[in-house]
TrEMBL record:
EC number: 2.5.1.18
Name of this protein: glutathione transferase
CDD domains, alphabetized: GST_N_GTT1_like
GO CC terms in record: cytoplasm
Top-level class of the enzyme under EC nomenclature: transferase
Organism domain of life: Bacteria
Length: 212
């Protein structure tokens, strides 16, 4: 059975949501952030050398990196239904979205988090970080015009990656004037599988409608 190493308040929530959508059997090993540093417990390094979450185990296979995990689960347990086939015209656009979340979109948010800890010393970087966050969000906002999900009417593997970006943007008040993105988050957060995943995962304050 698939085992998900799940850290509270983290990206691994996207993996739980995917597994619930797929109806796959899985178990969760819960890990809790240090209350002060917010770091993952050192024990996670025994599962994977980076000591980050998500990590999954499936038999002898151990996979880190959420895009790789989403790709693996969608291909194996979703019979490819969430990924346009390699000869489909949408295949590479989907690949781009699948990797955009962790490859580019998250970076300015993380910079904001770390630079924010420098206080006044980090202030000169603020405008560039802010404009890069807006760059990412404006791109997503435009891509979602007239679409329920990133590839159109139906969920795809990339949505499981992008939801975390949309949720952290919403939690920092950046979706107020981005109706396509805020509609996207609301649409996803009311899905029964998403709600089941929230219950299974425990604390996740990026969900605007917790545990309903
Ligand atoms: N790009 C990686 C990022 C993994 C990552 O940084 N996970 C965070 C949780 S959101 C983590 O484990 N943080 C705890 C720590 O760094 O100690 C992925 O998408 O899986």
């Amino acid at each position: 059975m698939i085992k998900v190493h799940h850290l509270n308040e983290s990206r691994s929530q996207r993996i739980l949501w995917l597994l619930e959508e797929l109806g796959a059997e899985y178990e969760i090993q819960h890990w809790t952030r240090d209350a002060e540093t917010r770091f993952a417990p050192a024990g996670l390094k025994a599962i994977h050398p980076l000591g980050k979450s998500p990590v999954i185990e499936d038999g002898d296979l151990v996979i880190a990196e959420s895009a790789a995990i989403v790709d693996y689960l969608a291909q194996l347990y979703g019979q490819g239904a969430l990924i346009p086939k390699t000869d489909h015209p949408d295949h590479w656009a989907h690949q781009q979205w699948l990797h955009f979340a962790e490859g580019s979109a998250i970076l300015p948010f993380l910079l904001g988090l770390y630079v924010g800890k420098l206080g006044e010393a980090g202030a000169p970087l603020g405008p560039r970080i802010n404009s890069e966050i807006n760059n990412v969000l404006d791109y997503l906002e435009a891509a979602l015009e007239g679409r329920d999900f990133i590839m159109g009417d139906d969920l795809s593997a990339a949505d499981f990656m992008l939801i975390f970006i949309a949720e952290i943007a919403q939690s920092s008040g950046r979706l107020k004037e981005r109706p396509n993105l805020s509609g996207y988050v609301a649409r996803i957060q009311k899905r029964p599988a998403y709600i089941r995943a929230l219950k299974a995962g425990g604390p996740y304050s990026f969900a605007a409608t917790p545990s309903n």
